[in-house]
């Protein structure tokens, strides 16, 4: 080999090793390896007790990350109360001294601010359809069985200009305390039942959302959810206005005998469960 060819061969080897790192840096696997994968964090929840001096924290909260605080596309929830005057006996008695399951002011709708706060803590942008349907029934001279029909135009009109990822109509069950209460880790919670009307086109969609939420609730507090109840046939509404949205359900929180603390704990669990079921695991 001539001296010239030896020099050319040596120069070629040096050039190859010089450009190799540059070439390697352009390969796809190197781009992936150098790009950190953002891990999703489990959103936390706080139980805000009625008496702030006795506030009980279910889990420690974390300050939201900057990108969470400025989320341009938050998960939006609409909360409504078709049976607005449904009340819990212990709450009514604490205020009026009387035992009652219906009250104009101390009722499930009066918990709306707590519901919004608990939901917001879990990253849910929450609106309330603030219509007192029981008062509307009285004004229009209609019976209790017409509640959903009276609610319908208010909900329908609201949905014409607003989009939501989940819509929940909150109620309370009529069962006694021992059937609507569960103890977990030394604390009592109001049990949950999720109701879906089976006589409309959105039934399967509504059911899928409800079953996903129910299983997530039970993963947080075992057996807090009694499952999804489908309603159809004579003597029931059969649709509960759920034909207006595929992602709508009724959530019954506890029964007539549950205390405010028990209901409040459960509201906190619902907020966390919605976040875990539809936000943290969302692919939207």
Any overview of this molecule?
The structure is a single chain. The protein is an alpha/beta fold and 284 residues long. It has nine helices and eight strands. The strands form two sheets. The protein has a six-stranded mixed β-sheet with strand order 2-1-3-8-6-7. It is globular. It starts with a helix and ends with a helix.
Helix and strand layout, with pairings?
Elements lengths: L2 H22 L3 H7 L31 H4 L5 E6 L8 H8 L15 H10 L2 E5 L4 H8 L6 H15 L4 E6 L9 E4 L2 E4 L1 E6 L5 H18 L4 E7 L16 E6 L6 H21 L4
Distinctive features:
284 residues; alpha/beta; six-stranded mixed β-sheet; two-stranded antiparallel sheet; 9 helices; 40% helix
Lateral strand order in the biggest sheet = 2-1-3-8-6-7
Percent of residues in beta strands: 15-25%
Number of beta strands: 8
Based on CA inertia axes, which overall geometry fits?
globular
Radius of gyration: 27 Å
Give the CA-CA distance, first to last residue: 65 Å
The number of helical elements comes to 9
| Secondary structural class | alpha/beta
The biggest beta sheet reads: 6 strands, mixed
Give the low-pLDDT segments. 19-46, 48-68
Note the quaternary state here: single chain
- Mean pLDDT equals 83
Order of SSEs: HHHEHHEHHEEEEHEEH
InterPro entries: Spore_II_P
Protein name: Stage II sporulation protein P
């Amino acid at each position: 080999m001539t001296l010239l060819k030896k020099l050319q061969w040596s120069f070629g080897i040096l050039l190859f090793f010089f450009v190799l790192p540059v070439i390697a840096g352009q390969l796809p696997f190197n781009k992936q390896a150098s790009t950190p994968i953002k891990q999703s964090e489990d959103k936390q929840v706080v139980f805000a007790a009625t008496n702030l001096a006795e506030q009980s924290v279910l889990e420690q909260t974390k300050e939201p990350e900057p990108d969470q605080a400025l989320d341009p596309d938050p998960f939006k929830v609409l909360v409504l109360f078709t049976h607005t005057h449904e009340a819990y006996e212990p709450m009514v008695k604490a205020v009026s001294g009387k035992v009652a399951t219906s009250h104009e002011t101390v009722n499930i709708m009066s918990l709306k601010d707590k519901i919004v706060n608990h939901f917001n803590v879990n990253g849910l942008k929450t609106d309330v359809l603030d219509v007192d349907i029981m008062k509307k029934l009285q004004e229009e001279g209609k019976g209790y069985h017409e509640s959903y029909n009276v609610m319908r135009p208010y909900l329908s009109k609201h949905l014409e200009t607003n989009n939501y990822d989940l819509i929940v109509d909150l109620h309370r069950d009529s069962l006694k305390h021992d059937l609507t209460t569960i103890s977990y880790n030394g604390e009592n919670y109001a049990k949950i039942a999720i109701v879906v009307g089976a006589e409309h086109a959105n039934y399967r969609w509504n059911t899928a959302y409800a079953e996903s939420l129910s299983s997530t609730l039970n993963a947080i507090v075992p057996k807090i959810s009694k499952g999804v109840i489908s309603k159809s046939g004579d003597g029931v509404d059969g649709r509960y206005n759920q034909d207006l949205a595929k992602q709508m359900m009724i959530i019954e929180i506890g029964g007539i005998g549950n205390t405010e603390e028990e209901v409040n704990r459960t509201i906190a669990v619902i907020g966390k469960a919605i976040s875990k079921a539809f936000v943290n695991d969302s692919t939207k």
